[in-house]
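Action item from last meeting closed. Structure (430 res):
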């Protein structure tokens, strides 16, 4: 049986077109990709792992992230070949020069309607390829099973793929849970936005560093730039790299939001398209009041769904990174959250029928800054948040003359003092 399967695959490979068309697309995309600043995640990934998932919401730059990594590999590869040529020009095998170490492929190519990912990987490996980068993988049927086959069959092949937040990976996927390494790519942090706008190169800080040394850190930064001059613009449009494009940022973000609903929720979660209107209405209802507590019964009545289905849809919106849910310590879905937030302040500002209060933006901003790498919960104490079951935090719009009793993120504070931490500085966590 295995022999017959191998013969079938070999026959398909012989009939399949050469990889030249894929490389033409690859070369164009790599040449025209731009990542204006180096994302910190690039240096946090162990690129020696053979199967890597770059997970992130729509619009945060996953494709450009992969293309930037390809540029780095190809630059290193060319430098290595040039060095070998200098050391032993006569020994160099002419075929080595033709080896292409990387290939970027979008899995929505029509090639994959009659050919498999394993076939493509086989051709690539046989011509000396080492690094296969995959985009739009969720559109390819049986993607996790095929990834596992590639992993088991080609021991020298490294596969890196983009993943939407709702794709089942790690513990949720029996094919991949023991072999894939998953990393989360978020939108621009305030630090990244500030570096991009100013040309400076500020480093990131841990939460512990910020809590303990926020006064000196903020002073050092403010000696070089005035962060508050940039902070309001960041809250408005700085999270998504698309703000760098000349077209309307609002139109671009609206397209992202609709794709999250129509593809990440409907398609991947396999929800009937007839429910799209209810999903859109649910999101709009949440946008009207967030950050706010949830009255699930009222919302369910408004959109014409059961309470249980409404909670499931709210969870889907969270999974697709349109909203965030704040739970008390020790609680999680399917229990009702304490509060719902928009995933970031850029999304929060997309409700054009409501002028958001500064405190609503600052509270949303705090959650976005901190929850990416830390556990954020509601607390029964008078504090607003508890982080990592350890640090109690409040959020305020303006500083007061008297110090606070616990760490307090202040939206309109430039220099830290006492327990009052500039909110913008928490944007330096990554």
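Sequence:
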């Amino acid at each position: 049986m295995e022999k017959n399967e191998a013969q079938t695959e070999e026959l398909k490979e012989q009939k399949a077109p050469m990889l030249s068309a894929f490389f033409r697309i690859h070369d164009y995309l790599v040449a025209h990709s731009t990542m204006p600043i180096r994302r910190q995640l690039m240096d946090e990934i162990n690129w020696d792992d053979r199967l890597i998932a770059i997970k992130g919401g729509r619009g945060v730059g996953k494709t450009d992230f992969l293309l930037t990594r390809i540029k780095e590999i190809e630059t290193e590869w060319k430098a290595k070949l040039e060095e070998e040529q200098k050391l032993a020009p006569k020994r160099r095998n002419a075929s080595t020069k033709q080896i292409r170490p990387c290939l970027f492929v979008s899995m929505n190519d029509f090639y994959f309607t009659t050919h498999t990912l394993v076939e493509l990987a086989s051709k690539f490996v046989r011509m000396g390829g080492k690094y296969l980068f995959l985009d739009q993988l969720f559109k390819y049927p049986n993607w996790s099973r095929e990834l596992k086959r590639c992993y088991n069959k080609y021991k020298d092949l490294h596969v890196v793929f983009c993943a939407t937040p709702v794709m089942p990976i790690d513990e949720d996927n029996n094919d991949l849970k023991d072999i894939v390494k998953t990393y989360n790519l978020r939108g621009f942090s305030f630090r990244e936005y500030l570096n991009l706008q100013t040309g400076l190169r500020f480093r990131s800080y841990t939460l512990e560093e910020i809590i303990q040394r926020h006064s000196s850190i903020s002073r050092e930064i403010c000696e070089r730039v005035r962060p508050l001059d940039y902070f309001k613009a960041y809250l408005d449009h700085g999270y998504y790299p698309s703000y760098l494009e000349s077209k309307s940022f609002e139109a671009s973000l609206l397209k992202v939001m609709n794709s999250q609903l129509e593809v990440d929720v409907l398609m991947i979660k396999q929800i009937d398209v007839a429910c799209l209107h209810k999903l859109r209405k649910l999101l709009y209802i949440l946008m009207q009041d967030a950050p706010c507590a949830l009255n699930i019964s009222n919302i369910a009545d408004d959109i014409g769904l059961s309470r249980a289905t409404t909670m499931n849809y709210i969870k889907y919106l969270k999974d697709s990174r349109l909203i965030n849910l704040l739970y008390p310590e020790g609680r999680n879905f399917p229990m009702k959250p304490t509060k719902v937030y928009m995933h970031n302040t850029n999304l929060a500002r997309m409700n054009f029928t409501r002028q958001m209060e500064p405190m609503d933006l600052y509270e949303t901003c705090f959650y976005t800054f901190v929850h990416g790498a830390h556990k954020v919960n509601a607390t029964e104490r008078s504090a607003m948040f508890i982080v990592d079951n350890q640090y109690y935090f409040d959020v305020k719009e303006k500083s007061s003359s008297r110090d606070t009793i616990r760490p307090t993120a202040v939206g309109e504070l430039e220099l830290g003092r006492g327990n009052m931490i500039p909110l913008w500085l928490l944007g330096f966590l990554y």
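Note appended to the action item: The mean pLDDT is 92.
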